[in-house]
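Something for you to look into today, if you have time. Could you write out one complete protein record for me, on any chain you like? Leave the record below and I will have a look.
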Amino acid sequence: MKLGFIFFVLTTVSSVLASLDRPFFVGLGLLKSRIPRFITSLDHPYVKENQHAIESLSDPVQFFCYPESQLRALLPPVPDDIFKKLSLDDHKWDHTVEILSGFLDCPLAVEELEELQVKVSSASPSKYSQTAIKTFTLFTRLFKEAIQLKTLAWMDPSPEFDSHDATSALHKYLTDQNLNLPSVTTLILGPNAEFFVAAAPKLQKISSAPGFAWSWSGFNHFYRYENGPQRRLVRSLDSAKQLENVDLGFSFSKDSTAELVKAAPGVKTLSLEDFCDEGRQYGEAGRENFKAILSELAKLESLTVLSLPHVNYLGIGSFPEPGFRCGNAYFGIEGSKYGRSELLQEIQATEEAADIILQALPQLTKLCIRECADVKAGKIVRWPWTGRLRDYVLQSWPRLDGTDPEDDGKEDLDGPVLYTWEEDEEWFSTSKKHSIDEL
């Protein structure tokens, strides 16, 4: 009798709460949300801005998945791009199963999906739960049914560190299912996901996934072994016959550059992270290594846009690393002057590097070495500092006004930009000693 009375009271209270202001009590955790996880995972402004009203709907799934639903009249019009992008990036397998299941049960969502971003762990089979294994069939269904999918970003936040046999159980399953991505034109991949390349016959652009995975590989030499993730990804490009744009965020040597040129001879736009795969080199050795890599890139006859990192990562800069000194060296007035002097030397090295590059690749129309410049007839048209070197330096390293607690005073607005007027004369006057493009 008592149990029945308690159940009656709880049921009544729940009904009353729901009738008063359901979204409010959902926010307090007193009621379960009606909005399915696959809707909230869309991370779309419409869902965030109308969450209160969506929570009040009797059936949010019907509202989103069926345009003819009468519920559509209760809220502002649903944007056409509501299902354009889906992100699976919380690394939890049970959430992934829930999101994929809900998404696949919504015909409109699958039909309109154009961009899929996945960040899930694909460890060895022994580390999988039954929940994780269930995603295998769900991903297979999604890849088959999402016929408008154009961009796939796939990164394993915890890749296996085996340089010779890093293919995960999930990857193997998808491959065994004859994975096919006929509409995908862009891939953004982390380590061990190179098998997606062969599955995308219309692939035009490939990028390495940003973040920790590839940068970690840069600190582990086995990642650059003959059959390591970097080399495997480069070699996989051989199957991408329509590939035009390559953006790879890891180090290259002359040999790995040659491998890239062989695998992707038709590339038009190329972005590389580093030229120091075999260890950082400077001085004459750095320049020779740099020129050797350029001799390989010169074989890319269709290449018109080349993007490279900071000049010091090319091995020909004045400093071992960008900002290699302790952060304290850049504090205060003296630190700002040091930063400006360092920037000027980097600019000078950048222009030197550009001259070397354009001798090897005169067909370029755009060159980026951290900063970008258009190229015409093998010559730089204009750098961001061209004609405004002094202003560019002060824009990057403004004079201190003394308002920051770490400032050691207020810088004289009429004083030299560098340490002395003589240095200013050398760098900024028309008869300056240092050669920097100011025309």
Observations:
- The chain has three domains: 1-32, 37-82, 89-395.
- The CA atoms of residues 62 and 68 lie 9 Å apart.
- The chain has 17 helices and eleven strands.
- The radius of gyration is 28 Å.
